[in-house]
Amino acid sequence: MKKSVLIISACIVASVAFGQRFVTTTYIEQTSVSPKTGIAIGAINQYGIEYGGFYQESKLAETVLMSQEEVSRLPRKYEKVFYGAYVAFPILSYSKAGLKFNVRTGVTNGENFAITPSLLANYNLTKSMSLGGGLGVRALAPTLQTRVTITL
Question: Range of 117's domain?
Answer without folding.
Answer: 2-151
